[in-house]
Automatic annotation (TrEMBL), chain A:
Pathway listed: Lipid metabolism; malonyl-CoA biosynthesis; malonyl-CoA from acetyl-CoA: step 1/1
EC number(s) recorded for this UniProt protein: 2.1.3.15
Coiled coil feature spans: none
Chief location of this protein within or outside the cell: cytoplasm
Keyword annotations: ATP-binding, Cytoplasm, Fatty acid biosynthesis, Fatty acid metabolism, Ligase, Lipid biosynthesis, Lipid metabolism, Metal-binding, Nucleotide-binding, Transferase, Zinc, Zinc-finger
Enzyme class: transferase
Name recorded for this polypeptide: Acetyl-coenzyme A carboxylase carboxyl transferase subunit beta
Cellular compartments per GO CC: acetyl-CoA carboxylase complex
PROSITE patterns: COA_CT_NTER
Gene: accD
Gene3D superfamilies in alphabetical order: 2-enoyl-CoA Hydratase, Chain A, domain 1
Automatic annotation (TrEMBL), chain B:
Species this chain originates from: Oscillatoriales cyanobacterium SpSt-418
Entry-linked PANTHER family: ACETYL-COENZYME A CARBOXYLASE CARBOXYL TRANSFERASE SUBUNIT ALPHA, ACETYL-COENZYME A CARBOXYLASE CARBOXYL TRANSFERASE SUBUNIT ALPHA, CHLOROPLASTIC
Subunit record text: Acetyl-CoA carboxylase is a heterohexamer composed of biotin carboxyl carrier protein (AccB), biotin carboxylase (AccC) and two subunits each of ACCase subunit alpha (AccA) and ACCase subunit beta (AccD).
Protein name: Acetyl-coenzyme A carboxylase carboxyl transferase subunit alpha
EC number per UniProt: 2.1.3.15
Catalytic activity: N(6)-carboxybiotinyl-L-lysyl-[protein] + acetyl-CoA = N(6)-biotinyl-L-lysyl-[protein] + malonyl-CoA
Cross-referenced InterPro entries: Acetyl_CoA_COase_a_su, ClpP/crotonase-like_dom_sf, COA_CT_C
Function: Component of the acetyl coenzyme A carboxylase (ACC) complex. First, biotin carboxylase catalyzes the carboxylation of biotin on its carrier protein (BCCP) and then the CO(2) group is transferred by the carboxyltransferase to acetyl-CoA to form malonyl-CoA.
HAMAP family reported in the protein's UniProt record: AcetylCoA_CT_alpha
Lineage, top ranks: Bacteria, Bacillati, Cyanobacteriota, Cyanophyceae, Oscillatoriophycideae
Intracellular or extracellular location(s): Cytoplasm
Coiled-coil portions: 16-54
Pfam family, one: ACCA
Length: 311, 326
């Protein structure tokens, strides 16, 4: 049975409504895949983490979805929600930066392009940062830099693994050099986390480019990517200007980076949580002795100590 | 010395060139007619000096960018050769390439062994093509970090010189991991135990500049610039009009003065009137004395202090607000 047949059967069972489908599309109960055009019951699509049940296309999701998809229910403890961007340079292009910020802060319930906090993945505590492409293209300014740095510093103090879900066009030009320096600031915090022998896993999602690629996205102990995500340093159009021949079709895709040795694995979104849990477990310090033969004397020693402590 | 080369004039230097031409003309006429015009000449020369001072003390950001990119501006190799007692260039990233857009090696300055490295622009068109206009490829950043690791192992301070329009944006660099190469340097430069002094000598373009600029001190020459995106690229993206580069240059805050005010750099190195290219040896002298002064300061700190201060230096960068939680 193909996945589609399975799904079609399931739809028959779960969706008694046959007529009135048109109305449901209008109401947003049905969702059309951007890639294959197949209509899917929106709730099922959501259950499948916005991965098309027909073709496996990964539709765009945002920071709230990431937190829900990756963390155990009710385990999210957000940090630094009160940090917000100011307009340090008085920057104005076709629109004032301060207006752009106000517009975005009015539309979304968070104040800048990343949400950070502590939560549990399959029971395991992690420090999670999820970038949000809706907020000025996920661009990294002072607030993104500060929030991610505070997250990493806390993880270092509390000996937690860090997971950063990247989705960003790069540094935020409206904050000029202050933005560029966030790359260094975060890399410095990651150096301390690393020195403490703690695990850091960036998850590269569509798109991860520019200054984010040239800093924390590429500094993972293990680097995961979502299928077909665009990941690169320079913009594709800039690259095209530098050469006469055509770029390979998969240029700057997750698959291209895997092929060239810059990511460890491409993980479908539906398996991302389980994969993170597995990796975090594998890197936990061994607390109990592995199953190997032990001498009686070794066994009795901790036991007697145990008694002393208890007594 | 090389034979006198014809000066390359920037558009705002035209009035100066006209004045110089007039002085020469009067002198010639006076000689032909055997008239004493020394007083007039003296006045005009004084006026020329004043005018040069006026023009160069009030350059717009875009004009500074032009000075920073001046084809005769002293390069990394010019400075290294001028300020070091001895120097040997070392080659290769040990991963299969030797990027000539980055140069580096072992040197001695003020009697002290150091490692010096930096982006290298070409001195003429042919050289520029060979050096890819100072745009480093991943191999360049890997060569730089290899030299810095060497310095750290032998307890030699590191001096880096930044002069690049940005990292090489070609397809091969993407394939070889341009992002990874820069990111790796950013992290590793935090853990080195030796002093690191970074100096922007020309233009410092975005991540490609930052990739060798994490240090205990960041110095900038007076007319050098440092930007997150080139004014041309920024104008094309945010204004959707490359012609808006002057506005972008203004808005991005790219000059040494602006960056000093934002507390992102430690010191501005004054340039000779007319820019570093007007008197490269004087510029080199300024650089040398600043490097020696900062090296002396940094050598008085312990390894742990240096690393902690380096971390705190970057930790403090950023401007934001924090509302009190209700």
């Amino acid at each position: 049975m193909s996945l589609f047949d399975w799904f079609a059967n399931r739809r028959k069972e779960t969706s008694p409504l046959k007529e009135g489908q048109e109305r449901e599309i209008a109401d947003g109960l049905w969702s059309k895949c951007d890639a294959c055009g197949v209509l899917t019951y929106a709730k099922d699509l959501r259950t499948n983490n916005m991965v098309c049940l027909e073709c496996g296309h990964h539709m765009r999701v945002y920071s709230d979805d990431r937190i829900r998809q990756l963390l155990d229910a009710n385990s999210w403890m957000p940090m630094d929600e009160q940090l917000y961007a100011v307009d340090p340079l008085g920057f104005r292009d076709r629109k004032a930066y301060s207006d752009r910020l106000r517009d975005m802060q009015g539309k979304l319930h968070f104040k800048d392009a990343v949400q950070t906090g502590i939560g549990r993945v399959d029971g395991l505590p992690v420090a999670l940062g999820a970038m949000d492409f809706r907020f000025m293209g996920g661009s990294m300014g002072s607030v993104v830099g500060e929030k991610i740095t505070r997250l990493i510093e806390r993880a270092t103090r509390e000996r937690l693994p860090v997971v950063l879900v990247c989705a960003s066009g790069g540094a935020r030009m409206q904050e000029g050099m202050l933005s560029l320096m966030q790359m260094a600031k975060i890399s410095g915090a990651l150096e301390r986390h690393r020195e403490s022998r703690l695990l850091y896993i960036p998850v590269l999602t569509h798109p991860t480019t520019g200054g984010v690629t040239a800093s924390f996205a590429m500094l993972g102990d293990i680097i995961l990517a979502e299928p077909k995500a665009t990941i690169g340093f320079a913009g594709r159009r800039v690259v095209e200007q530098t050469l006469r021949e055509k770029l390979p079709d998969n240029f700057q895709s997750a698959e291209y980076l895997l092929q060239n040795g810059f990511v460890d694995a491409i993980v479908p979104r539906t398996q991302l949580k389980a994969t993170l849990a597995q990796l975090i477990r594998l890197h936990q310090p061994v607390t109990t002795a592995p199953s190997m033969p032990v001498h009686r004397a070794d066994v009795s020693a901790p036991n007697s100590l145990h008694h002393v402590v208890e007594g | 010395m090389a034979p006198e080369r014809k000066p390359i004039l920037l558009d705002f230097e035209k009035p100066l060139a006209e004045l110089d031409a007039r002085i020469a003309q009067i002198q010639e006429l006076a000689e032909e007619n055997e008239v004493d015009v020394s007083e007039e000449i003296r006045q005009l020369e004084l006026r020329a000096v004043q005018l040069r001072q006026e023009i160069f003390s009030s350059l717009s950001p875009l004009q500074r960018l032009q000075v920073a990119r001046h084809p005769r501006r002293p390069s990394t190799l010019d400075y290294i050769q001028a300020i070091s007692d001895e120097w040997m260039e070392l080659h290769g990233d040990r991963c299969g390439s030797d990027d000539s857009a980055v140069v580096g090696g072992v040197a001695r300055i003020g009697g002290m062994p150091v490692v010096m490295l930096g982006h290298q622009k070409g001195r003429d068109t042919k050289d520029n093509i060979a050096r890819n206009f100072g745009m480093a490829s991943p191999g360049g950043y890997r060569k730089a970090i290899r030299l810095m690791e060497h310095a750290n192992r032998f307890g030699m301070p590191i001096c880096t010189f930044i002069d690049t329009p940005g990292a090489n944006p070609n397809a091969e660099s993407e394939r070889l991991g341009q992002g990874e190469a820069i990111a790796y340097n950013l992290r590793e430069m935090f853990q080195f135990e030796v002093p690191i002094i970074c100096t922007v000598i020309g233009e410092a373009g975005s991540g490609g500049a930052l990739g060798i600029s994490v240090g205990d001190r960041l110095l900038m020459f007076e007319h050098s610039v440092y930007y997150v995106a080139s004014p041309e690229a920024c104008a094309a993206i945010l204004w959707r009009d490359a012609g808006k580069a002057p506005q972008a240059a203004e808005a991005l805050k790219i000059t040494a003065n602006d960056l000093k005010q934002l507390n992102l750099i430690d010191e501005i190195l004054p340039e000779p009137i007319g820019g570093a290219h007007a008197d490269p040896l004087a510029a080199a002298e300024t650089l040398k004395s600043a490097l020696l002064r900062h090296l002396t300061d940094l050598n008085n700190l312990t390894t742990q202090q240096r690393r902690e201060l380096r971390y705190q230096k970057f930790r403090a960068m950023g401007v934001f607000a924090e509302a009190i939680a209700e």
